[in-house]
Design brief:
The protein is an alpha+beta fold. The protein has 1 helix and 3 strands, in the order ββαβ. The protein has one domain (about 10-55). Strands 2-1-3 form a 3-stranded antiparallel β-sheet, with helices on one face. Strand 1 and strand 2 (about 20-30) form a beta hairpin. It is flat and about 50 Å long. It starts with 7 loop residues before the first strand and ends in a 13-residue tail after the last strand.
Length: about 70
């Protein structure tokens, strides 16, 4: 039986900056799959991904983005 690679949390900060930076995340097996999932969710190709952090799902993690105007 084939072993399924462990899932990871992929977090992009400074994602798709326009007037302000966004945030995107995906839980996937690898970065390629994660990017495809985000592009499908957004409905278009992403050109500015921002900074990437990869967190194994064995670690506790929290991130927050506050809104503003």
């Amino acid at each position: 039986m084939a072993r399924i690679p462990p899932l990871k949390l992929f977090i992009w900060t400074s994602f798709c900056p326009d007037y302000s930076s966004g945030l995107a995340f995906a839980i996937a097996q690898d970065e390629t799959e994660a990017r495809e999932m985000v592009e499908k969710e957004m409905g278009y190709d992403i050109y500015v991904w921002g900074d990437l952090e990869i967190v194994p799902l064995t670690d506790k993690v929290a991130r927050a983005v506050s809104g503003g105007g």
